[in-house]
Design brief:
Two copies of one chain form a homodimer.
Chain A: E1 14-17, H1 22-34, E2 36-39, H2 47-54, E3 60-63, H3 71-75, E4 82-85, H4 95-101, E5 104-106, H5 113-129, H6 131-139, E6 159-163, H7 167-177, E7 182-186, E8 197-199, H8 202-208, E9 211-214, H9 228-234, E10 239-242, H10 251-259, E11 265-268, E12 287-289, H11 298-316, H12 327-331
Protein name (chains A, B): Dehydrogenase
Family (chains A, B): Belongs to the D-isomer specific 2-hydroxyacid dehydrogenase family.
Organism (chains A, B): Lithospermum erythrorhizon (Purple gromwell)
């Protein structure tokens, strides 16, 4: 452990945070009990100068998925041994550089998966049964006016195609089985362990299904995988849900298909240019939108907080990390 | 079968409809293919005069849950032998009078139950995960403003108390098990066939649970069963869902508890004075409202249409009715 200047904090190991995170905002007090936290974002210095003057002895960085841990940052921290991220995604971390330098990376594993799956189901029901639209209808005082509120569509019996059958996709599938839906999926490869029909081709899956749920990760292979062709194959009664990443869908194509009535409705937790959402969606009744909150619950963040603390404590006491990034995921 | 004056329609048996219904609006053409429909609501005559001049030979009435079939109406139809309602509820039919006169009653049975259960789950997820609120947040352009959208609460792990464990209640319970919720229930009597904890007392159940879902029928025993005491027992983190009937909740008590922050949120498909909703709810962020649409899906109404036609055809061809009201339900 690095030596400390401050007498009061000499026992506490240093953790560098470049930019505040959700977990840190919620549990800052707990962090201060166990670590000397170096808060780069509160310093008037530019990050590079802050690191140079304050963080040369840092062995551990804690970050969210919104803070890039680049090769540059890593090169400025000669003693860096671990990156702890509160995210499941690793797109913000230069994993190759970490591997090359022997820097461990821990992540949130599948902690958020249940919450994301729940949100996906919530969006499916909301779009099919027009819940947010109905809430708007009532708040606008339209119920007593005699305007007929349109009929929704039944969840049970729907054929649902899942794009990406990882942890989240499997949890979505299991929940939907309880509603009487028929599940199929598209994925890089067929999963031997599931009873669901596998499609190699997303267009074919879209044309065979009533609902598409996107919950794969964003890679060069999945970017814009949901395009005009897929949406038109899904069809005029089809519903699209996205709890993955915005850029998996070609948003221009989506807006066009919605304007032209080529699909029936969408539920979107993620967007291509967050926090900016295409304005055309704001007035559409068949669209339900949430601001990238599928993984956000108080209970989920408490679980992640415990993982983050557990990983940092394990690192500083030379114990096995709780959720190191497994090599196959890091190499994906 | 009654004799008919109109030569063209002489083969078609008469069905009297006092006021149009959802199923009739959707499938009117199909009705005309098989029946001579007497549309009382389209006549300039008052109902009594219409019945006296046009419907004296009527053996079958078809109605929705919104058309009272009173003792008076029944007494004006000397040949009435069957009441076919598209509803599951029977509150609008004088069942005692039907029984006394040997008039059969058919209803929608459990056709709507799945859709109501789905809506209940949709409302649970929507309230806990703030979906409609999030949709409003985005449509109001608040996401890029930097205003922090509040965290939702996890569905999994919630203790859910179901008020009324009939068809709908059981379907709700099964769905919620898939989300990792713990189920208990209150009902007139303990059900031997379920693994769920039984409460005789709603206040006790409310204080032991995070979410209460009301899906019992409205009777003198259940009217205002959800009152101030129950809501305060449910508590400041508690969520209330109602897909039963509005008057099961004391709406004044509910509004008061919401204003005072005594409960965390509500999802309401039904209201005490429909289509009027307490205006105070219109501006509350923790309230999700739908205009009594839990049972309304295109697919569900098609199923009910088929039951209605099947019951009428069975009656006119002396075959067993598809969904006669069972005596225990009618006597409840």
């Amino acid at each position: 452990m690095p030596t400390q200047n401050n007498q009061q904090e000499k026992e506490l190991p240093q953790v560098l945070i470049l930019r505040t995170t959700f977990v840190f905002q919620l549990y800052e007090k707990e962090f201060h009990k166990k670590f000397k936290v170096l808060k780069a974002w509160e310093s008037p210095l530019p990050i590079e100068s802050f690191i140079e003057s304050e963080a040369q002895n840092v062995e551990a960085i804690f970050c969210s998925g919104l803070t890039p841990i680049t090769k540059d940052i890593i090169s400025q921290l000669p003693l860096l041994k671990i990156v702890v991220t509160e995210s499941t995604g690793l797109e913000h971390i230069d994993m190759g550089e970490c591997k090359r330098k022997g820097i461990a990376v821990t992540y949130a594993g599948s902690v958020y998966a249940e919450d994301v799956a729940d949100m996906a189901i919530g969006l499916v029901i909301d779009v099919l049964r027009k819940i947010s639209m109905a809430d708007r209808f009532i708040r606008n005082g339209l119920w007593p006016s005699g305007v007929q509120f349109p009929m929704g569509s039944k969840v049970g019996g729907k054929r649902v195609g899942i794009v990406g059958l990882g942890n989240i996709g499997l949890m979505i599938a299991r929940r939907l089985e309880g509603f009487g839906c028929t599940i199929s999926y598209n994925s890089r490869k067929k999963k031997g362990s599931t009873p669901y029909k596998f499609y190699t081709d997303v267009v074919e899956m879209a044309s065979d299904n009533d609902v598409l749920i996107v919950c794969c990760s964003l890679t060069e292979q999945t970017r814009h995988i949901i395009n005009n062709e897929v949406l038109r194959a899904l069809g005029k009664d089809g519903v699209l849900i996205n709890v993955g990443r915005g850029a998996i869908i070609n948003e221009d194509d989506l807006v066009e298909c919605l304007i032209e009535g080529e699909i029936a409705g969408v539920g979107l937790d993620v967007f291509e240019h967050e926090p900016n959402v295409p304005k055309q969606l704001f007035t559409m009744e068949n669209v339900v939108m949430t601001p990238h909150r599928a993984a956000f619950t108080k209970e989920g963040f408490f679980d992640v907080f415990q993982l983050v603390m557990g990983n940092l404590e394990a690192f500083f006491s030379d114990k096995p990390l709780l959720t190191p990034v497994p090599v196959p995921i890091a190499n994906e």
